[in-house]
Write a structure and sequence with these properties.
Order of helices and strands: EEEHHEHEHEEHEEHHEHHEEE
Strand order of the largest sheet: 5-6-4-3-13-12
Number of helices: 9
Number of strands: 13
Largest sheet: 6 strands, mixed
Structural class: alpha+beta
Radius of gyration: 20 Å
Helix content: 10-25%
């Protein structure tokens, strides 16, 4: 098992490009103004910290004994990101779940890993589980009682209760909370050239249908005297629909929102955030796009190569090699099934999905902009001979999440 040392003599655990999950631990952060010269590690992790009923996550996190949450925390401690997006973290309007996770799990060393401290965090409402008041799917009338599939289908984003599958940003660097832009309420019909399925939704549905299935956030991160915009989201999976491909099309346009946001005024002028401010990033502003995009560039059910809108965007600066792991290669080989014959390199996979369909995919992305210099990166997916394999498992039983944490280091150019 190899060990790497980061600057400031910090021992860290990371997944190498060869994919070994490395043992190591995190130390307390130095002041942000002292850290801007070293690489900054951005990461995304769909941690599956969602529950089937409202308030259940708070209950689970109120003690330090929930094994899945311990596994999530240890994964974060092993990778030691500086700025992290967690997808599928149930939102509550008091922020109780986030505070409990920080206190009872991340601040406690898990199985030999050192505690990790994020002095700054941001979370906000999402569309999942929020009733629309409209019969979106044309079945059962308008369902307004939480807790069923029929209710979830009529919500702005699929969820059994408001806030299910939410997002949270954790950071060792200060966040400009007052400057955060959210796009929870942007209407799909207001995107020019959208790919809304023709004739599928009623006029009443289109009048209120929000594009973002959860939300899109621009969270400015202050790194020393510089600002990097952390652009985070979690588009809907391009599945669970019919021949109209409504979810695939929505996924495409949720990804397109960021492509337009970073594309200059000619592409972003139509956008409006939840405060009514229009437009996107100014030319030259630096960003990192992160999240479970539910879109693989070569395999899966994406509509019109959705993620290539970002991977091939002129404002994005890709690393020489995508984040990778040896664990993904091993999993694809051992699990077989739909993994056989896929076009993508399994080293780049980030999701351990059903081997009947769609197989393992590269769906979680951390994409830096021009003006940032990409460095080391990886996917936390240990192989079966690694002691940390217990944090990912063999795919038959989900011990932590069916996704793997993806990280990318950057330097300010």
């Amino acid at each position: 098992m190899n060990h790497h040392t980061r600057s400031l003599s910090r021992r860290t655990a990371l997944a190498s490009l060869a994919g070994a999950a490395l043992a190591g631990t995190a130390a307390l952060p130095a002041a942000a103004t002292e850290r801007h010269s070293r690489p900054v590690r951005f990461a995304t992790f769909n941690a599956s910290l969602n529950r089937s009923t409202q308030g259940a996550l708070i209950t689970d996190l109120s003690t330090p004994d929930n094994q899945q949450a311990k596994n999530v925390a240890e994964t974060i401690q092993r990778v030691d990101p500086d700025v992290l997006l967690i997808n599928e973290f149930d939102y509550d309007d008091q922020g109780a779940a986030v505070r409990l996770f920080l206190k009872n799990y991340l601040a406690v060393g898990q199985s030999g890993a050192r505690p990790i401290h994020f002095p700054h965090h941001f979370t906000a409402p999402v569309n999942t589980g929020v009733p629309s008041g409209v019969d979106f799917d044309g079945k059962n009338g308008v369902v307004t009682t939480p807790g069923s599939d029929a209710y979830a289908q009529d919500c702005f984003g699929y969820g059994f209760f408001p806030g299910q599958y939410g997002l949270v940003v954790l950071s060792k660097f200060p966040l400009a909370a007052r400057a955060v832009r959210t796009f929870q309420n942007f209407l799909w019909k207001d995107m020019p050239g959208n790919v809304i399925p023709p004739g599928y939704y009623s006029d009443a549905a289109l009048a209120v249908f929000r594009l973002s299935s959860k939300s899109h956030w621009d969270v400015p991160v202050h790194i020393g005297r510089e600002t990097v915009h952390f652009l985070v989201s979690h588009p809907t999976p391009p599945t669970f629909d019919g021949t109209e491909d409504r979810n695939g099309r929505r996924n495409h346009d949720e990804i397109r929102l960021w492509a337009d946001y970073i594309g200059g005024r000619q592409h972003s002028a139509y956008l409006y955030d939840d405060k009514g401010v229009r437009g996107g990033l100014r030319p030259g502003e630096r960003f990192v796009i992160a999240g479970d995009q539910n879109a693989d560039p070569l395999d899966g059910d994406s509509y019109d190569n959705a993620i290539r809108q970002l991977l091939e965007h002129p404002a994005v600066r890709l690393p020489a090699t995508p984040p990778a792991s040896a664990g993904g290669v091993e999993a694809a080989r051992l699990q077989g099934g739909a993994n056989i014959g896929q076009k993508g390199n399994p080293a780049y996979d980030t999701g351990d999905f059903s081997d009947t369909a769609p197989g393992n995919l590269r769906v979680d992305h951390v994409l830096p902009s021009k003006g940032l210099v990409p460095g080391r990166n990886g996917v936390f997916w240990p192989t079966s001979d690694d002691p940390l394999y217990r944090l990912v498992g063999d795919g038959r039983t989900v011990v932590t999440s069916d996704h793997r944490m993806v990280w990318q280091e950057i330097r300010l150019g």
